[in-house]
Structure formats: C-alpha cells, structure tokens
Amino acid sequence: MKTALLLSGGMDSVSIAWWMKPDLAITIDYGQKPADAEIAAARKVAELLTIKHEIIRVDCSSLGSGDMAGTAPLSAAPVSEWWPFRNQLILTLAGMAAVRMGCGRLLIGTLATDGQHADGRPEFVERISALMSFQEGSMLVSAPAIGLDAVELVRQSGIDQATLAWAHSCHVGNFACGRCRGCIKHFNTWHALGWTPH
Q1: How far apart are CA 96 and CA 3, in angstroms?
Q2: Model pTM?
Q3: Which Pfam family, any one, appears in the UniProt record (predicted)?
Q4: What secondary structure does DSSP assign to 91-117, as a single string?
C-alpha cells in the first residue's frame, strides 16, 4: 500500500518523514500565517529524502482563529493556536490528493502531547480513519508517533541534526518569533536532545 504523509514542515512531521519514508509528502497552505516557511521547509526535506512532494493551496484564512490565523483565539480554544476543525479540514484535503496519487494510507504527526486538542487524541485518529476508510478511496489514517513526545519521536526516528534543522515550528510567521508555543517546543526539544538550534 502506498503511503502519504501530511508534511507540515514542523519538527514532528519532518521526523516522521525521515522515520517512515513515505511515498508521497503533502503540504497544505490553508491560510495559516507561517505557510510559506512551512512549504519551504517541507519542500527541502522532501528533496533531501527524495520523496515526491505535493503542495495544496486552499485559502481558509477567513475561517481561522488564534495564533496561526493572526487573530484572537475563540472562547472555545483550548490553547492559543487552536483553529476550528483544522485537522479534520487538512486531513480531508490531504486525503483527496493522496487518493488521486494512488495512496491508501495517510500518516499524520500527532504526538502523545497533542491530547489537549480533541483532534490530537487517539479517538480522533480512529474516528477520522473510520470515516475516510468508509468512503470510496478507502483512505486509512494513522499517527505512528501518537504514543511519543517530541524528544522520543526524534530519537525513535533517528533523524540527523542537519535535516531536522530545516523544520519550521513557529505558529505566527515565516521567521521564528521565539515566543509562541511552537517556537518554545522547538527550543525545548533541541535542548533536551543536547543539540544547539540553528
């Protein structure tokens, strides 16, 4: 079965690309503020790993909220970067591309620490996979790192420091702000690994 990976260009999906070596990487610009940097990071990693790379652009910025949309979070937001139904949206878009490219399995970079979001929990992955596999195309969705935190994933993947240095983790822009939750996670992961961030 051919496998596709939702490759955001962040540390987690870059590590999974190295670890799982999918047949196809899909990056989605859905209107998020750091889209250009995420695409550049994903493109470079896909090139380094010789993985076919597909970019999808669908501007949903008018529907977003929080850090990634450049607006105040909604009252329902569990954390500042929450965007309503984001994972459901991007998995649907990625699934559409994956089916067209002949893939039957779609990997996502969800970690054990993403459980503060309902769409970052094992139950969500199971339900979205059941829904997408029920439909024509029979797309299976899986999260190979859902039992790991970021440090454990990097170690499990065996990714080298030079490749991981291409990852873009900032939630608010195309240059690392150093203050958002994505940047802080990036720094803390590198620190825990004993590496010096680039």
Answers
A1: 13
A2: 0.94
A3: QueC
A4: HHHHHHHHHHTT--EEE----GGGGGS
Nearest to 30 by CA among 43, 22, 39, 41: 39
Tokens standing for residue 30: 């859905």
29-44: per-residue pLDDT in tens?
Answer: 999 999 999 999 999 9
Task: Tokens for 108, please give them.
Answer: 């996502």
How confident is residue 198, by pLDDT bands cut at 50, 70 and 90? low
Q: How far apart are CA 41 and CA 52, in angstroms?
A: 14
Q: What domains can you pick out in the chain, each with its CATH number? A: 3-193 (3.40.50.620)
Helix locations, the chain, DSSP H: 11-20, 35-48, 86-100, 122-134, 150-157, 161-164, 181-193
Structure token digits, residue 172: 């608010």
CA distance 167 to 38: 8
What does the block give as tokens for 66? 């929080």
Cα 51 to its chain centre, rounded Å, is 16
pLDDT band at 197 (very low <50, low <70, confident <90, very high): low
Q: Give the mean pLDDT of the chain.
A: 95
Q: Name the packing angle between helices 11-20 and 181-193 (round to 10°).
A: 50
Q: Tokens 């139904």 identify what position?
A: 85
